[in-house]
Task: inverse folding
């Protein structure tokens, strides 16, 4: 079983809609979770960090953690064409310095 | 402005050649990482270093070695390149906590013929 799993997509949403991405992880002891965005031909950049003390909202992005079910979600509200990218879920499974990444979900926002 | 610089964006090498991928960061980060990224497989950790001259194997270290002689520089070495090492290689760095953000370089696309 992979440590971090995501649906590869592609996820296609119309402009202005909500894009919903999910990620499941295998290590129940994981404490920190991250969403990275990667534009085509570019390197990943951090957009959200989530710790087990509640959901997090940053502008149009909301990250939610469900520890009981071991999944992390990312909602993109009012999706824009500039949100078209691959979104990588990352988990710190052993509370050390290494992150485990999912394969990523590719999102396409249709104008 | 934080920066992680990888020496080569594109390389083409022949099977059996020795390949060096260099990475330099200017943020005084303790931790540095080498990942490879392949379609459908995501980012896989090859090696990481938590301090100068310290290194630890990641999930797929076979066929690779690393060197960290100075804090700012982390090198990935392919002793004898093979075609299955054709990939995008990403270097990253972060501060020495388990919650720090990873900063990535632009990537080095290696093709082994």
Result:
């Amino acid at each position: 079983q992979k440590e971090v799993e995501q649906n590869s997509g592609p996820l296609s949403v119309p402009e202005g809609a909500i894009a919903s991405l999910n990620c499941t992880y295998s290590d129940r002891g994981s404490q920190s979770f991250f969403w990275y965005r990667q534009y085509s031909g570019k390197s990943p950049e951090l957009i959200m960090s989530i710790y087990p003390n509640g959901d997090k909202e940053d502008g149009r992005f909301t990250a939610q953690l469900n520890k009981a079910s071991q999944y992390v979600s990312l909602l993109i509200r009012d999706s824009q064409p500039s949100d078209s990218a691959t979104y990588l879920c990352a988990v710190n499974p052993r509370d050390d310095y290494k992150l485990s990444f999912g394969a990523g979900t590719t999102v396409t926002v249709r104008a | 402005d934080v920066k992680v610089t990888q020496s080569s964006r594109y390389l083409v090498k022949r099977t059996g050649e020795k390949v060096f991928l260099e990475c330099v960061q200017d943020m005084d980060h303790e931790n540095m990482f080498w990942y490879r990224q392949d379609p459908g497989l995501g980012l896989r950790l090859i090696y990481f270093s938590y301090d100068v001259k310290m290194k630890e194997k990641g999930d797929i270290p076979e066929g690779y070695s690393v060197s960290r002689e100075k804090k700012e520089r982390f090198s990935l070495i392919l002793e004898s390149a093979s075609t299955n090492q054709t990939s995008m290689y990403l270097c990253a760095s972060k501060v020495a906590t388990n919650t720090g953000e990873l900063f990535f370089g632009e990537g080095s696309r290696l093709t082994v013929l």
Summary: Chain A is about 0% helix and 50% strand.
